[in-house]
């Protein structure tokens, strides 16, 4: 499993179709659909700041993660997601 730690990720589909990742202490800033069509992803202590962060994803675990207001429609069409100690500020999630 690849670990991404303390990163600021930007741009359209920054980690599109990723698999088997641990993402921690990171921020997904400007850029839609950063993890679209990804699977087997664990996310800890991170922030999503822009639209459609987890579309069409599978097997996602979020812990102490925030979907900020502009992370609209954050989890559509995804399956097997768990969220613990997290905050959803985004509408339509």
What is shown here, in short?
The chain has 93 residues and is mainly beta.
How would you describe the overall organization of this protein?
With 93 residues, the protein is an all-beta fold. It has a single domain, classed as E3 ubiquitin-protein ligase SopA (Pectate Lyase C-like), CATH 2.160.20.80. 0% of the residues lie in helices and 41% in strands. The chain starts with a strand and ends in a 5-residue tail after the last strand. The mean pLDDT is 97.
In terms of per-residue confidence, which ranges show pLDDT below 50 for 5 or more consecutive residues? none
Average pLDDT rating = 97
CATH superfamily: E3 ubiquitin-protein ligase SopA
Using only C-alpha atoms, the radius of gyration works out to 11 Å
Q: What share of the residues lie within helices? A: under 10%
- Summarize the biggest pleated sheet: 5 strands, parallel
How much of the sequence is in beta strands?
A: 35-45%
CATH architecture: 3 Solenoid
Biggest β-sheet: strands ordered side by side in the sheet:
1-3-5-7-9
C-alpha termini separation? 28 Å
Domain module count: 1
Q: Which structural class do the helices and strands define?
A: mainly beta
Count of DSSP helices? 0
Count of DSSP E strands?
A: 10
Q: What is the CATH third-level topology name?
A: Pectate Lyase C-like
Tell me the overall shape. Answer: globular
Order of helices and strands: EEEEEEEEEE
CATH class: Mainly Beta
Defining key terms:
93 residues, mainly beta, Pectate Lyase C-like, 5-stranded parallel β-sheet, 41% strand, globular
